[in-house]
Here is the input.
Amino acid sequence: MKNPHDQNVVQTDLVQEILQLYNATTDNRIRRQLLALISKQLSKQELMKAIPDLTTYRIDQARLDITTAFSSVATCTQLFLDPSFIQIVSYGTRDLKMESGNTITIPNVVRTACHTKLKQMYQSYCREVEFQPLGISSLFKILEACAASKRTSLHGLDNIAAEGSEGYDNLINLDECYKL
Here is the structure.
């Protein structure tokens, strides 16, 4: 069993590493991203004490960034995992390993829509609700992470086979007519 104190020590070390990276860089975009990573773990006072030139405005913006990013990913995965676009199959399971070390067994699923179609639906949905969508490369990375088998369309295959067979029957009948 893990000691909760050990997790706090690791988290504190991680926060210290992020603070060091923040202080080492001069790129404001990178600073904002690093601040977003730790803005929820520490209070504004703790952050301002650790980073002397930091303002409450920058902290608020970093917290907004992390909230918006989480909301974007949540909206995207909610659409991609919607039962309208996936189907649970009756065979096989998949094990998901969590960061905590736990393993969750889930049934295999088959995605019934192609990645490009899902991406288009997501972007259309975002336009309708006036929501800033994730970038295309991010969407494809999420689809890769939410692994599912792709359904192969066999629709119409029986008709094609039947028509092909009918064509051979017609040729045989035509041949028999000429033999007479």
